[in-house]
Structures are given as structure tokens and as C-alpha cells.
Design goal:
Elements lengths: L3 H22 L6 E3 L2 E12 L4 E11 L4 E8 L6 E3 L6 E6 L5 E4 L5 E6 L1 E10 L6 E12 L3 E12 L6 H8 L4 E2 L9 E8 L6 E7 L7 E5 L11 E6 L2 E7 L13 E8 L2 E8 L2
Parallel strand pairs: 12-19
Antiparallel strand pairs: 1-2, 2-3, 3-9, 4-8, 4-10, 5-10, 6-9, 7-8, 10-11, 13-14, 14-17, 15-18, 16-17, 18-19
Length: 281
């Protein structure tokens, strides 16, 4: 039998441990589990610089083996996730960053763009008033695909203090977000140019990308607005460290003009990824 003093110390110790566990739990929301996937929010650090002040958080998605979810541009098929932060407290804006995706067969003869296994999308939260408590509320709609695709949704909530313990995990994923750079050969990886050429039913775009000769390289393209749905660029030869990709100017919204439109190219090679805006001639 414990002596009174020992019993008191045991109770105090247990309370401290339970308190620490509760505090740690606030660094992440509960998992919202769906069929073949689950999602939660992660709390990161406050970022302060001469240019910006924001809180960092993350949206973590975990997928069953063999299941995938989609990037902001899903490719030949698929549905990009949508985010509703309107129920948040003391939040002026939320910016979603996208780690470099990968291409995978969509099961219908085409290719989709997205993530397998696990991904964390870094979030940058600008507060309305930095002196007041902040809570992030997210209604997430997304799709997960194996042999078939199923819709999923999550309702997530997390208080943010600017001192979250998940900063390391979020920062690791932030390093996978493509760097935004100007057109040119770059240092090892670069999108050099994109030019229109007359085609059959549609004009074609020829893109030149600089990358190490034997490196695996993927190239994705997005239009100036979300209602553009351009084909995935396909390899079209090359010369040394310069590789060419091509795609038809198909999938433009009604009334849109290709000439003068700014397309965004994302090139991914190994651990390096860049995002390059180019205005079509």
C-alpha cells in the first residue's frame, strides 16, 4: 500500500502526464476516417519576416495501399480537392501549397496526377487579428481512387497557437513544393521555352526542358484559370540535356484564346521541382 505522500506524488505525476498528452493532442486534430483514406490538420509555427506574417499548418492525407488522390490539376480524369475554410475563427485567408505530384495510370487509358500513400499539404494562415485566438475549420471534399473512384469528405477543426509541435513534418513537405522560377535553363532543372506550332484539329505546344540526361523527368501544365483542362505533355525527343515535350491545345474553355495566355509548367525530377509561368506566343 502506498504511503499518503507517495500516493499524492503518483496522482500529481499522472495529472502532469495526462496534461502533457492533452497539450500534445492539440498539435493535431482527430483523424477523420473515410473509406480507404483519412485526413487531419497539423499545427505548425508562426512565421514572421519583413515580407509576411502567418501561421503554418498542414493538411495530412493518408491513403490505403493502392489508392490515390488528386493534385490541383487532376490530369485526364479525377477530381481535385476543394477547401472551405469559411467556418474558421480569426482567419483572414488561407493559402494551400502543393508538394510535387506524380503521374499514374487512370485505368481508362489515360493518366492522372496526384499522390499515393501519404501527403501533407502545407497551409499558410493569415490572421485577422494576431492578438486574438485562432481556430482553423476545414470542410474538405476530395476523391480517392483504386480500381474505382469514391468521393470523400472531412470536417476538421484545430486551434492554432503558432507554436505547434508538427512544424518539422510540415516543413519537410514544404521543401517538396515546387520553386517558382523564371523561364530558362536553370541550374540542373529548368523550363526553357514553350512555343505554339500549327497542328491538325488543334495547334500544338512544344516545350523545351533542361534536365540531367539520364534523370527521370515529369512535366505538367495548367491553364491561366481552373476551367482550362489541357492534356498532359508527352515526351517528344531531345538533344543532350534538353528534352522536348508536346501537347495539343485542347480543353480550352469556350471563347478562350491560346495566344497570349500564361501557362504554368511544373517540372519534377527526383527531389527537385520547379513551377514556371510562360506566356504563349
Amino acid at each position: 500500500m502506498l504511503a499518503p505522500m507517495s500516493r499524492h506524488l503518483t496522482i500529481v505525476t499522472l495529472a502532469v502526464l495526462l496534461g502533457a498528452a492533452a497539450a500534445h493532442a492539440q498539435d493535431a486534430s482527430a483523424w477523420d476516417k473515410q473509406s480507404h483514406a483519412e485526413a487531419r490538420l497539423l499545427a505548425g509555427a508562426a512565421v514572421k519576416s519583413a515580407d509576411s506574417n502567418y501561421l503554418r499548418a498542414g493538411l495530412e492525407l493518408r491513403l490505403d495501399p493502392g489508392w490515390k488522390t488528386y493534385w490541383r490539376e487532376p490530369g485526364d480524369s479525377g477530381v481535385p480537392p476543394t477547401f472551405d475554410f469559411s467556418g474558421s475563427d480569426n482567419v483572414k485567408s488561407v493559402a494551400v501549397d502543393w508538394p510535387a505530384p506524380e503521374r499514374f495510370p487512370d485505368g481508362a487509358g489515360g493518366n492522372s496526377i496526384g499522390y499515393v500513400g501519404r501527403v501533407v499539404l502545407p497551409l499558410r494562415i493569415v490572421q485577422t487579428d494576431a492578438a486574438k485566438p485562432t481556430a482553423l475549420h476545414l470542410k474538405l471534399d476530395y476523391a480517392v481512387c483504386g480500381n474505382l473512384c469514391v468521393p470523400a469528405e472531412a470536417n476538421l477543426e484545430l486551434a492554432l497557437s503558432g507554436n505547434g509541435a508538427e512544424e518539422t513534418a510540415i516543413e519537410k513537405e514544404a521543401l517538396r513544393v515546387p520553386r517558382r522560377v523564371a523561364p530558362g535553363p536553370g541550374k540542373g532543372l529548368g523550363v526553357i521555352s514553350a512555343h505554339r506550332q500549327p497542328g491538325g484539329e488543334h495547334d500544338r505546344v512544344i516545350v523545351e526542358v533542361a534536365a540531367p540526361k539520364d534523370a527521370v523527368l515529369e512535366l505538367f501544365v495548367e491553364g491561366p484559370t481552373a476551367d482550362w483542362s489541357l492534356p498532359l505533355p508527352e515526351p517528344a525527343g531531345g538533344d543532350g540535356d534538353v528534352r522536348r515535350f508536346a501537347f495539343d491545345l485542347d480543353g480550352l474553355p469556350p471563347g478562350a484564346e491560346a495566344k497570349g495566355a500564361v501557362l504554368t509548367f511544373t517540372a519534377v525530377s527526383g527531389d527537385d521541382a520547379i513551377e514556371v509561368p510562360i506566356r504563349l506566343d
